[in-house]
Amino acid sequence: MNSRPCAPAAAIAGTVFPHPVSPELASALRRALQALPQPPARFAVAVSGGADSAMLALHAAAVARETGAGVVLLHVHHGLQDAADGWRDQVEALADLLGLPLRQARVAVATAGGQGIEAAARDARYAALARLAAEEGVGLILLAHHRNDQAETVLLRLLRGTGLGGMAAMAPLTSRDGLAYLRPWLEQDRETILRAARQFAGATCWHAVQDPTNADPRYTRAALRELLAPVLDARWPGWRAIVARHARHVAQANEILDEVAREDFAALEPGPDGASFSLAAWRRLSPARQVHVLRHWLERNGARMPTEARMNDLLRQLRGLHSLGHDRQLRVEQAGHLIRCHRGRVWVEPRPGAGTLAPR
Question: pLDDT value at position 79?
Fold first, then answer.
């Protein structure tokens, strides 16, 4: 890789940063970091070697100079592509260019659990990032998802029949495995990122890697990107911004519904651990709120959401029980959990391997 200087350095907050940066992308990143409850003294950036994550690493390095924050790059080698070693080499070259430390992990993607390759790779990547972050002692990882990714996620979840929470798509700030994940560019169009990548390449001769699966319609997201998106682009050029705005509105509505669900559940005379509630109190809710509070209750107890058909069956049984809940025939299994009714209370807990569910 030739790192010849081909463009003037960019001035950042009174200091000279040795690489050109995008004012729009730097400003968006700065706002996202400043909006955190506590600005991080040190954070990480997940870098694959593609244009999006490479530009996030570049702008993180630039913005961090303003505050003196420390930045570490994290790279996960999946080994799924023959070119993966080359991607690792490019990430190492990028880290050298930016003067940032790089930590790497190699993972084996297991698909025997019934997951598709995309989901399995994603889970393996998050697990590896969590390990690397723990080793580095950082609690915040930046991800390079942008508005195009957000729009694709909304469409994919819509086609898969997700619920309202899923339609909110990716949140700017989420937690997983005890870590905070920040997506500062969800409002940024990918063309802005690609333009910054071209400027960076012109200045340094460092070029982002290209993952062939991103354009392979055998993969679900790539199929949407290659087959459906061009049709939408031709008919509705601004569809990505519209869909991303829809995701924001759904997220806001979902926050309100979550507040309602918490208030409704608090009125159901819940048990100390939240695993049970009063059947009679639940029946006093409207049908729509009965459904919503059930979903809230199942989620807080770690149960997977039932399909619409299974939820309707659970509702039918709960509504048909004896008013005091003495009908012992209610027994609903839901993805490893068991739901039963005893003495007017509805219970859920992980399905035991043997024995019976003991009311508490």
Answer: 65
Q: Which residues neighbour 108 within 8 Å (Cβ) at sequence distance 6 or greater?
A: 79, 124
Q: Annotated binding site for ATP, which residues?
A: 48-53
Mean pLDDT value across residues 226-248: 93
Q: Enumerate the known binding-site residues.
A: 48-53
Model pLDDT, residue 206: 96
Instruction: Say how far apart CA 129 and CA 334 lie, in whole Å.
Output: 31
CA–CA gap between residue 288 and residue 151 (Å, rounded): 28
**CA-based radius of gyration for the chain:** 24
Question: Could you tell me the pTM of the whole model?
Answer: 0.79
Give residue-wise pLDDT tens across range 66-119: 989 999 999 998 766 667 788 899 999 999 999 999 999 988 777 655 556 777
Extract the tokens encoding 290. Answer: 């009965």
Q: What is residue 327's predicted lDDT score, i.e. its pLDDT?
A: 53
Helices (H), the chain: 23-34, 51-67, 84-98, 117-136, 147-159, 164-167, 190-204, 220-223, 229-235, 239-266, 279-283, 287-300, 308-320
The set of residues, in sequence order, having a beta carbon less than 8 Å from that of 283 and lying 6+ positions away, is 290, 318, 319
pLDDT digits (tens, 9 = 90+) for 143-199: 999 999 999 999 988 888 777 777 888 999 999 988 999 999 999 999 999 999 999
Name the architecture of domain 268-350: Up-down Bundle (1.20)
Tell me yes or no: is domain 23-239 CATH 3.40.50.2000. Answer: no
Distance CA 21, CA 28 (A): 12
Q: What ranges do the domains of the chain cover? A: 23-239, 268-350
